[in-house]
Write a structure and sequence with these properties.
The complex is a heterodimer of chains A (233) and B (190).
Chain A: E1 4-11, E2 17-25, E3 39-41, E4 51-52, E5 57-59, E6 65-68, E7 72-73, H1 86-89, E8 90-92, E9 96-100, E10 105-106, E11 119-126, E12 134-140, E13 145-150, E14 159-164, E15 180-183, E16 200-201, E17 209-215, E18 218-221, E19 226-227
Chain B: E1 3-10, E2 16-24, E3 34-35, E4 37-39, E5 47-51, E6 70-77, E7 83-89, E8 95-99, E9 110-115, E10 132-135, E11 163-169, E12 172-175
Parallel strand pairs in B: 5-7, 10-12
Antiparallel strand pairs in B: 1-2, 1-6, 2-4, 2-5, 6-7, 8-9, 8-11, 9-10, 11-12
């Protein structure tokens, strides 16, 4: 069984399902002292006569990346994507659907646990359909505890809006991973028995970096906050 | 091949769990919520799986998993013997837990909790994951802490029914938040 690396492009239809692109090892950056992307998007030219193993990659005549599904020797008959037999040997590598196994069970109206450009390790699993389909499933390389940047001072709610920090530490300001709703479970101590984020100490404010985690489709602040005796902001 | 299993109960050996095998449900692939998996067999049978993260733990160590947790499982060759099933958990690093008791005893540095299950909402009220001890680290700040016997006391951090976050590390569940002692025990007020 081969295990591949992919990066997340966008959310797909279905909770925990993502459109992903395969990554291949970038030999020019292998062993780089710092900053090198040792894995990157596929950019290897197809080569006549080359022996392609399952899991190898090549760029098609449409300039898109393809993954070899069946070992073969390259001929013009199986050249991606002009060869008549190419689709039995190659599949498009920049748009596959992958289930994040950490989102194996999600609540109603779930929020995605992954962000654009997150990396995953994936493999194939056959589903239980009448005509079984081989699906891609996997787990993210990112930890489940993420850092996020708060977008506005905490208000009289039990949630705050944040942008996740991506795999490179940069704030994700648009698309998947931006504008997430981070929830907060109120401590029942004191009166009233349920209180809001603008009544806590420490008080969460815009541009704070907080630790968050996605549980079954909901983002949570993982710190326990105490109740402030100050008036709400 | 990597398969998905669901934890049902602790097995007798440390780090081992009795699990049911799951199947990927085609009809749920594109569903907007719910479970992507179901039991693979109509009458599921226990399969013993070792959770590799719990290697080397003593018999008194806390269990890391709860009923309903899912694991990625594969066969790993025994030395000359049959292949064994080992796996890693598909659980968040910081687990949401629900406190089951209120103000702590002055002698305790832990609070008893139920782990919130894999469905994200149900606190486990029996079996594996029920009534775990979550160790709470108390700040040694001498202005606030009552450390008259050399040990800080944990007071009024929580009432029963609160949700806090805990992580399992080396056989111990610990709260991810550092606590101060309750205001009730500041020296200035005693």
């Amino acid at each position: 069984m081969l295990i591949y690396l992919v990066k997340v492009i966008s959310a797909a239809t279905g909770a925990g399902i993502y459109n992903c692109a395969f990554l291949s090892i970038d030999k020019t950056n292998w062993g780089a002292a710092s900053g090198g992307k040792m894995v990157d998007l596929v950019a290897a030219a197809w080569s006549l006569g080359k022996i392609y193993a399952e899991g190898s990659f090549a760029t098609g005549t449409d300039s898109k990346p393809y993954r070899c599904k069946v070992p073969h020797t390259a001929t013009n008959y199986n050249k991606p994507i002009t060869g008549a037999d190419c689709l039995s040997l190659w599949e498009l590598a920049d748009s596959i659907e992958v289930l994040n196994l950490f989102e194996n069970f999600t609540t109603a109206s779930p929020q995605s646990a992954l962000a654009a450009d997150d990396r995953m390790e994936i493999w194939q699993m056959t589903d239980d359909g009448g005509s079984p389909v081989v699906r891609w499933v996997g787990v993210p390389l990112e930890g489940t505890v993420r850092r996020a940047k708060v977008k506005a001072n905490a208000g009289s709610d039990q949630f705050v809006t944040c942008n996740l920090l991506g795999y490179n530490g940069n704030e994700i300001t648009s698309g998947l991973g931006s504008g997430i709703t981070v929830n907060f479970k109120a401590n029942k101590e004191g009166t009233p028995t349920s209180w809001q984020l603008n009544q806590t100490v420490p008080r969460i404010a815009a541009d704070d970096i907080i630790s968050v985690e996605n549980h079954s489709g909901k983002w949570w602040l993982i710190n326990n906050l105490g109740k402030s005796e100050d008036k709400p902001l | 091949m990597i398969e998905i299993y669901e934890v049902r109960e602790a097995a007798a050996s440390v780090g081992f769990y009795n699990c049911y095998k799951l199947k990927l449900v085609a009809a749920n692939w594109a569903a907007s919520s719910g479970d992507k998996f179901a039991y693979a067999d109509a009458e599921p049978a226990f399969v013993s799986v070792m959770h590799v993260k719990e290697y080397g733990q003593s018999a008194s160590a806390a269990r890391a998993l709860a009923v309903g947790d899912r694991m990625m499982v594969w066969d790993y060759s025994d030395c000359g013997g049959p292949a064994r099933k080992i796996g890693t958990a598909l659980t968040p690093e910081a687990r949401m837990v629900k406190t089951t008791e209120g103000v702590l005893s002055a002698e305790d540095n832990f609070i008893r909790c139920d782990i919130v299950a894999n469905d994200g909402s149900t606190a486990i009220t029996s079996g594996l994951g029920h009534s775990i001890e979550v160790e709470c680290t108390v700040s040694m700040n001498t202005f606030q802490a009552d450390i008259s016997d050399g040990k800080p006391k944990l007071e009024t951090i929580s009432t029963g029914g609160d949700y806090i976050f805990a992580s399992w590390v080396a056989g111990v569940w610990g709260c991810v938040t550092l606590f101060g002692p309750g205001k009730e025990c500041t020296p200035a007020e005693e």
